[in-house]
Amino acid sequence: QWLSDRKKRALQKKDVDIRRRIELIQDFEMPTVSTKIKVSRDGQYIMAVGTYKPRIRCFDTYQLSQKFERCLDSEVVTFEILSDDYSKIVFLQCGRFVEFHSQHGHYYRTRIPKFGRDFSYHYPSCDLYFVGASSEVYRLNLEQGRFLNSLQTDASESNVCDINPVHFLFAMGTAEGKVECWDPRTRNRVGLLDCALSSVTVDTEIDGLPSVSALKFDGALNMAVGTSTGQVLLYDLRSSNPLIVKDHHYGLPIKSIQFQRQLDLIISADSRIIKMWNKDTGKIFTSMEPEYDINDVCLYPNSGMLMTANEAPKMNIYYIPVLGPAPKWCSFLDNLTEELEENPESTVYDDYKFVTRQDLDNLGLAHLIGSSLLRAYMHGFFMDIRLYHKAKMMANPFAYEEYRREKIRQKIEETRAQRVQLKKLPKVNKELALKLIEEEGEEQQVTRKRKQKNLPSLLKDDRFKVMFENPDFQVDEQSEEFRLLNPLVSKISEKRKRKLKILEELEAQEREEEEEPEGKASDAESSESSDDEKGWVEEVRKQRKLLRQEEKVKRQERFKEDQQTLLKPQFFEIKEGEEFRSFQDSAKKQKLMKKTLGDRLKLEEKLGTLNVCDTTVGSKQATFKLKKSEQQKKQQEAEKRHRQERRTLRRSASHLKSKRGRGRLFH
Questions:
Q1: Which partner for 304 in 39, 153, 324, 515 could form a disulfide, CB atoms 3.0-4.6 Å apart?
Q2: How far apart are CA 421 and CA 430, in angstroms?
Q3: What is the pTM (predicted TM-score) of this model?
Q4: Per DSSP, which regions of 540-583 are E strands?
């Protein structure tokens, strides 16, 4: 894309792939967008309509070039070639106009009452059937040159229509997801199919009501219907249920349906993908996803050539040899495809290397970003392969040696794979892995006899994978927990082995049909279990004695270290609001914090700060008295003193008043 035309012409001399590119038809394109493409019945002319400006282009396949181009007044919705060549063409345009063209050019123009969306030509009666934004189907007779009585349908709008080429049955697809079939001879409706209901299956998810967006007949009995939600339904006209429902899984309207009779294929296309699938089984044959959105698909008759009209100037041409031979005007394609299969050539990007920003940093070429040596593409850059090799040799001169060592290592591993494979133990927790392998083998033997399913192994489970890879999960055999539990684990494994031996002996005795008195096996098991318990208790006692001895040795060592160490004075900071009395109070607090909750509650209950009592319901009720700090106590004492002083002042004042009153009365 970023090569200029001059460089492309220069590359044609060097690049084999560019030299072998074939432009079948010269200037096979539109100025902006192509909307519809069709082939004449004689196969000589290919006609396409597009924009902008609205125009039609006719290409002559015998000359492999454009024959003529005609511009139109408005955009073309669809068109139909009435004759075997290009001499009679009908266009349905956006502004409700119907335009007729003959061999020399524009012939006649008329208008229909409502906006049209599709039309079909009925050859026996020379009638044109127009469907669109109306419940009526308009009929225009080309022999008489006038409109006939329209067909009144039950639909509010119609999207597509088609006429069967064998018995000339007229079918139209409505916006409500139904297909109405009419007989042109009696002008009566003869059938109704509800495609919207049939398109909803278990595997499909549909948002909204599906409307019919494509319709195509195949022979006298088959009809394919495409919906606006991306489903294709194949019907037999004798049944109201579809033979098969194919979903494109894109949720886009089906735009075109074609039948390929040689391989019994249906070619359905939406705006994103073209799918080819078997009409009997629904199995996908192949699919194509062009770069641009698809507007129309045309299959060249009796060949493997496919043409598409896209949302781009270039109209694509595909040749698939499996579908059929090449057309006679380009028969050389068959020889070229055989040569390409025999001699595969290099791709276009062989002279360039795609690198990411991280690769450029590793090579030390990050400063070239923005220069002409790097071409930005997607999430990286294209650079010349020669520059890449030079930079790589300078950045890593020993790359060849590393490559050689890697190849030698791969060869050695291949030869090792041919030898007898041994069970490899992991690097971490080898003893645990060995134990699990042994237990797994024993369990497999038991499950085979009992015909049960094997349980998954811990070694193969991804959830416990880290336990055998990370050294942090290594079992510490010197820890107190492991040493106390280890006798139990070993005894359990011995007990399991003994039980397995007993089961094997019992099975052998049953085969020999020898009876044994009841209760004997249980007595043996009880005696064995008692022996196991005694042995386990003895081993646990031994381990505890060893642990006590080790603790004594550690204490003696700590005592010696404490005697050797010199004590230095330490300073402690007192928190605000607290009064320091002695170190004994802090020691008491630490001892109190180390005690359990029950002991602390009993102590507080003795001191009177806690009161616990039973309720009538049966639960416990506890009332607490919050402890006051020294600062709060001082504040309370000051408040008491202040209250007492105020009381004394009030009493003295009242006493003086009473004395004065008595003196006045006496006076």
A1: 324
A2: 18
A3: 0.51
A4: none
